[in-house]
Amino acid sequence: MSKRKKGRDLGTEEMKYTEKKKMITSSSSRWGLISYDELPEYMKDNEYILRYYRANWPLKEALFSIFRWHNETLNIWTHLIGFFVFLVLTVLNLEQVPKVADLLSNFTRSFSVNAIVDASHNHSNFFSGTDALFDMEKTMSSEISATVSTPATRWPFFVFLAGAMFCLMSSSICHLFGCHSHKLNIFLLRVDYSGIAIMIIASFFPPIYYIFQCNPIWQFIYLTGITTMGIFTIFTLFSPAMSTGKFRAYRAMLFCAMGLSGIVPAIHAIIVNWSEPRRTITLVYELAMALSYLTGTMFYVSRVPEKWKPGFFDLAGHSHQIFHVFVIAGALAHYGAALIFLEWRDRVGCDKLV
């Protein structure tokens, strides 16, 4: 073999090796993180978060990015952990329901006045110990009256738990897979907004149902009102334009309007149950819920603290993560109030109320 031919062969092998190396390097870095300026327009939501974005990733890569550090990691995990917390609470509460299969039949009977009176004349206390929300065994076990065999209906309580879980899971999924494509991003944002609206609607069910259990007309008026408002909010936010950063404040305003609509039934409930000694503790829980949601919303709209120091909070500490934490705190505060409403309805009959 001549030296010239041998040189050509060596050159060819070197080129092949170089090309192969480039392909391997390109393949390993293909799904790397990019900067805000490199994002497609539909993903440019917060100009104060400068780096660590994912864009146009395949579903498989997006799924496994749950175990990677990027600027959505804590957004995913905060609400995913919250989902599992409420899932555990739901399972623990279901274990205390004597006849879970009768939830739907209880719902059917609940709007019959006679059935409501019968259901409300019981003296069980499934949920004492509200100071420890996670100590469910203690909460569910004390002061059960031997004279009453049927507790108050539980379905409104589980409507709230289901709404909270749907909201938290839909949020996590949106943050995880929103980097796949424009079409999927829009769809998941709609699901996310629907989850927020559904959680707000579901949060109204325990207090309104149990407080006005002896007044089914008011139950119907208030629950129909918030449900209608929620449906209107969902369809309003289905417009693709509503998913952009330009309408961030408008979205927050719609959700705040839904939550603040609870002021009317709250004032009504305070008036008709003014002498109830547990009125104050439920108000404290509900006030904590409202403050948590409103504070989180303020962070969401203002984009503080990343607005103060762009790039510094790219991975941790930016406004959306803080918003997520306050959402979970508010939901847990409302869970505490729901336990008290349920315990109260187990103990107190309609003849002692309005």
Can you walk through the features of this model?
- By secondary structure, the chain is an all-alpha fold.
- It has one domain (73-352).
- 64% of the residues lie in helices and 0% in strands.
- The protein has helices spanning 3-29, 59-64, 73-94, 103-109, 113-120, 136-141, 155-177, 182-211, 216-236, 248-260, 263-272, 279-302, 319-347.
- Helix 7 (155-177) packs antiparallel against helix 8.
- The longest helix is centred in the middle third of the chain and has 30 residues, at 182-211.
- The protein is elongated.
- The chain starts with a helix and ends in a 7-residue tail after the last helix.
- The relative contact order is 0.13.
- Residues 16-28, 98-134 and 136-149 have low confidence and may be disordered.
